[in-house]
Amino acid sequence: MTIVGQRATEATAELPANFLWGVATSAYQIEGAVAEDGRTPSIWDTFCRVPGAVIREENGDVACDHYHRMPQDVELIAGLGVDSYRFSISWPRVQPGGRGPVNAKGLDFYSRLVDELLGKGIKPWVTLYHWDLPQELEDAGGWPERDTAYRFAEYAGLVYEGLGDRVRTWTTLNEPWCSAMLGYDQGKHAPGIQNFGASMRAVHHLLLGHGLAGQALRAAAKEPIELGITLNMGSAKPASDRPEDVDAARRADGLGTRIYLDPLVKGHYPEDVVADLEARGAVLPIEPGDLEVISTPLDVLGVNYYSSHVFEGGEEPHEPVAVSQNLPVTAMDWEIVPQGFTDLLVRISQDYPGLPMVITENGAAFDDEVDENGVVDDSDRLSYISDHIAAVGSAVAQGADVRGYFAWSLMDNFEWAYGYDKRFGIVRVDYDTQERTLKRSAEWYRDTIRSTREK
Ligand code: FCB
């Protein structure tokens, strides 16, 4: 057996035969065609125009031109032999401005995508919100405003009307932590606001929007749907057993993981986090009945994992400091910590029992080198992915209920504030010609999936 073949066998040894394999993308990162067929601007179209917000002032105007190349891209996906494709729907394409009737042309794009996928035996895994809020809703206050949650549920219902006869799996939100913290607290993502209080209001309204949308989908569904939400998480460990470090890890875990999972699964916010917020003058604007809505039963938890951190207490107790673990890093400067992945999955299965998980994103950016034939021998990415699939296997062996894995990403794409600089694809995109070329990691992924079917 070759070394890469051996890696495949080792990586997948613990995974069940019916494990779901997929690749993932999101609308703004790949589609382009931002002004076509009635689409209106999202907060990302606006943010990309703010000087200095995105590296080299890049934007998603063209991206991977997927809007015009969708059938060929589905061919590409089919060639990888995956079971499922996770993509997101652009809200301003389907409901321009975030209010009012559906834009039939916009919805039709996704309807055709779903048909192409199903025609090739690939299960569509829909994410309703991957960060592209219609700009008009941001102008009306965005996620810190309660009404946005209701608008989101209405939009979910419109999408369901168009696709619900063929789509079974629905993820409401992708990574609400990023929407709230990067968008409204750190200002590194759209809409670029720096206001901690606003970010906490956003957290609550994102969760409320998730619950309302989930209820709207279930009410509209004739057949049972599979309802999920995707969270980005890592394992947060203290640098030492000094009380400041232990407290820093508790706080990082509180605002990173428990503030989402506790209300979603247990129907209440964690008390220690609420107390920390109070001390900072921030409030979760809970109204009667909200927590029942937020804890609408989940069928699956989507887990996005990239790295894990070790924390030290900082100058301000509420500012945990991530310290270096002296581990190799990816091109994002994110430390490579597969053990943290295993720890996270085992921990979730213990703290939130009975919740099946699917890895909805995992992958890595590296500075790819292209040879004269256009080949990218990305052994660094291949190792990252195989080591992390093996980490999922160890968690499964320890009892975690993990049912699938989606590689981030199908292809190189617009990496938010990093523009096109960081390449996460297992398929290379030449942005001058829009040519797609399988990297070695894609070939390995395809062969690995095939080998698990022969088990
Ligand atoms: C996640 C996002 C995804 C991509 C990866 C690298 O936080 O969901 O869109 O940017 O990171």
UniProtKB/TrEMBL annotation:
<protein>
    <recommendedName>
        <fullName>Beta-glucosidase</fullName>
        <ecNumber>3.2.1.21</ecNumber>
    </recommendedName>
</protein>
<dbReference type="GO" id="GO:0005829">
    <property type="term" value="C:cytosol"/>
</dbReference>
<feature type="binding site">
    <location>
        <position position="408"/>
    </location>
    <ligand>
        <name>substrate</name>
    </ligand>
</feature>
<feature type="binding site">
    <location>
        <position position="174"/>
    </location>
    <ligand>
        <name>substrate</name>
    </ligand>
</feature>
<feature type="active site" description="Nucleophile">
    <location>
        <position position="361"/>
    </location>
</feature>
<dbReference type="InterPro" id="IPR001360">
    <property type="entry name" value="Glyco_hydro_1"/>
</dbReference>
<dbReference type="Pfam" id="PF00232">
    <property type="entry name" value="Glyco_hydro_1"/>
</dbReference>
<feature type="binding site">
    <location>
        <position position="306"/>
    </location>
    <ligand>
        <name>substrate</name>
    </ligand>
</feature>
<feature type="binding site">
    <location>
        <position position="130"/>
    </location>
    <ligand>
        <name>substrate</name>
    </ligand>
</feature>
<keyword id="KW-0624">Polysaccharide degradation</keyword>
<dbReference type="InterPro" id="IPR018120">
    <property type="entry name" value="Glyco_hydro_1_AS"/>
</dbReference>
<keyword id="KW-0326">Glycosidase</keyword>
<feature type="binding site">
    <location>
        <position position="29"/>
    </location>
    <ligand>
        <name>substrate</name>
    </ligand>
</feature>
<dbReference type="InterPro" id="IPR017853">
    <property type="entry name" value="GH"/>
</dbReference>
<dbReference type="InterPro" id="IPR033132">
    <property type="entry name" value="GH_1_N_CS"/>
</dbReference>
<keyword id="KW-0378">Hydrolase</keyword>
<dbReference type="GO" id="GO:0030245">
    <property type="term" value="P:cellulose catabolic process"/>
</dbReference>
<keyword id="KW-0119">Carbohydrate metabolism</keyword>
<dbReference type="InterPro" id="IPR017736">
    <property type="entry name" value="Glyco_hydro_1_beta-glucosidase"/>
</dbReference>
<keyword id="KW-0136">Cellulose degradation</keyword>
<dbReference type="GO" id="GO:0008422">
    <property type="term" value="F:beta-glucosidase activity"/>
</dbReference>
<feature type="binding site">
    <location>
        <begin position="415"/>
        <end position="416"/>
    </location>
    <ligand>
        <name>substrate</name>
    </ligand>
</feature>
<feature type="active site" description="Proton donor">
    <location>
        <position position="175"/>
    </location>
</feature>
<comment type="similarity">
    <text>Belongs to the glycosyl hydrolase 1 family.</text>
</comment>
